C-alpha cells in the first residue's frame, strides 16, 4: 500500500523531471531559467521529505533564488549580437545515446535494488545554526568573502567590456 510520503516523493520527482526537461528542451533561455527554478524547488521538496529542513531552505534561497536571478542578470547584461553567431553543434546524436544509456542504467538499478525503509529524524535548525556559527564561523566568512570578490570581479568585467574604466 502506498503511503503519503511515497505519493509526495513521486509528485516532487515529477516536478524535478518536468523542470529538468524544461531546462534541456527549451529554446528560450528565460524559460530554461524557470525550468531550473522548478527543478531547484523540487530538490528542496526532496530535502524536506528526508527531514533536512536547513538544506531545503538553503536550496530555495541560494539555488532557487540567487542562481536563477544571477542567470537572468547575465542574460540582461549580455549583448544580443553575441548570440547571433551561435549554431547547433553536431553532438546531439551522441548526447541522445549517452542519455538513453544513463536512463537504462538507472532503471535497471532501481528494479534490481531493494530499499529498506527506516524512520528518519531530523536535526533542528537551531542546533545546526549553533554549530555553524560557532565551530564553522571562519570558513563561513571566508566563503562569503569569496562570493563578494566574484561579484566585484563580474562587475569589473562588465564595465571593462563596455569600454568604460
In short:
The protein has 165 residues and is an all-alpha fold.
Characterise this structure.
This protein has 165 residues and is mainly alpha-helical. The chain folds into two domains: 1-82 and 108-122, NADH-ubiquinone/plastoquinone oxidoreductase chain 6, subunit NuoJ (Four Helix Bundle (Hemerythrin (Met), subunit A)); 135-165. The chain contains seven helices and no strands. The chain has helices spanning 4-25, 29-49, 53-77, 81-84, 92-112, 125-134, 137-161. The protein is flat and about 60 Å long. The termini are far apart. The mean pLDDT is 83.
Blueprint of the fold:
Elements (H helix, E strand, L loop, with lengths): L3 H22 L3 H21 L3 H25 L3 H4 L7 H21 L12 H10 L2 H25 L4
Helix pairs in contact: 1-2, 2-3
What's the rounded overall pLDDT mean? 83
Order of helices and strands: HHHHHHH
CATH topology of the largest domain: Four Helix Bundle (Hemerythrin (Met), subunit A)
Report the radius of gyration as a whole number of Å. Answer: 21 Å
Q: Can you tell me the CATH architecture of the largest domain? A: Up-down Bundle
Q: Percent range for helical residues?
A: over 70%
The major sheet is characterized as: none
Distance between the termini: 66 Å
**Unreliable stretches:** none
CATH-level-4 superfamily name of the largest domain: NADH-ubiquinone/plastoquinone oxidoreductase chain 6, subunit NuoJ
Shape: flat
Number of domains as seen in the coordinates: 2
Strand content: under 5%
Structural class: mainly alpha
Tally of helical runs: 7
State the total count of DSSP E strands: 0
